[in-house]
Amino acid sequence: MTTSNSTQGSSNSKADSGKEESFARRAAEQMHEQIDKAAEKGEKFERTLYEQSGQAKVKARDVSRRMDVMARENPWLAIGGSVALGVVIGALMSRR
Description:
Blueprint (H helix, E strand, L loop, with lengths): L1 H72 L1 H20 L2
Helix pairs in contact: 1-2
């Protein structure tokens, strides 16, 4: 009886070990898939951010050019706008 029980115990432990390995392998594969998906999302986000930063640079250059033209054509308007902006910022900072 003892040999029979030990043989059954051995086969049960091998079966349990195989189930554990199979479970661990499936879990590792699922985690790997999730990591790949996260990496793809990160790469897509990076591309989008890069494209948007390029668009922002173009817009900033355009605004800079327009402001330069406006300041050259109407210097007193530019000075008045700067003074007004300074007053508003000063008023906001003094409230703190």
